């Protein structure tokens, strides 16, 4: 995989009226320059130039963006540029999720990559045994966080639910919890099309085997797959 900006073409800058003219990658007077590569569901994971969207923030207030994608190049607001350059068959709901994530990242951790997809099949979540009764009653919901997380966090690390695509990865997190002297459950999660985003802390946001579900997950979508033993 190659980083954003690899293609080496002359970048563009908007003239009056927002049309694109040859020029530098972004206005040299602007110190923003955050670049992120968004991988769409149709993107080729081995060659991000096929179906991927390059984004660059052009102003400190994140009001102006440059985008390059399957349908060309565009400068404007974030939602505008994504809609203009995305694959013609891009799901409007997918675009909405990308806009929401990039907007939130503008004020926080700035990822290099973003993968957004609708989860299918069964994924897995690891949590401490003492959360079992709450999960059975309320499902998985970061807003009900209490105690500490598997890695020792004292508050939710993000507004979402961390999920692993493979049970072996969930077991790796379970071992992390057991090393803290506590028993751990592994839950199977039926995703049924729920939106997932990559974790910016995992491979810069490129890892699609460990992702974050943006919505609470109800009890009906959960099955206790590997129960730990209560202490």
Which CATH architecture of the largest domain is right? Alpha-Beta Barrel
Quote the CATH topology of the largest domain: ADP-ribosylation fold
Total count of strands: 13
CATH class of the largest domain: Alpha Beta
In what range is the share of β-strand residues? 25-35%
Helix and strand sequence: EEEEEEHHEEHEHEEEE
Query: Structural class of the helix and strand makeup?
Result: alpha+beta
Strand order of the largest sheet: 6-5-4-3-7-11-12-9
Principal-axis shape equals: elongated
Q: Tell me the number of structural domains.
A: 2
Identify low-pLDDT runs: 1-31
Overall radius of gyration: 20 Å
Give the N-terminus to C-terminus distance in angstroms: 46 Å
* Discrete helix count: 4
Concise synopsis of the structure shown:
This protein has 231 residues and is of the alpha+beta class. 18% of the residues lie in helices and 28% in strands. The chain folds into two domains: 12-114, no CATH class; 119-226, ADP-ribosylation fold.
Describe this structure in words.
- With 231 residues, this protein is α+β, with helices and mostly antiparallel strands.
- The chain folds into 2 domains: 12-114, no CATH class; 119-226, ADP-ribosylation fold.
- The protein has 4 helices and 13 strands.
- It has an 8-stranded mixed beta sheet. A 3-stranded antiparallel beta sheet has the order 8-10-13, with helices on one face.
- Helix 1 packs across helix 2.
- The radius of gyration is 20 Å and the shape is elongated.
- The chain starts with 11 loop residues before the first strand and ends in a 5-residue tail after the last strand.
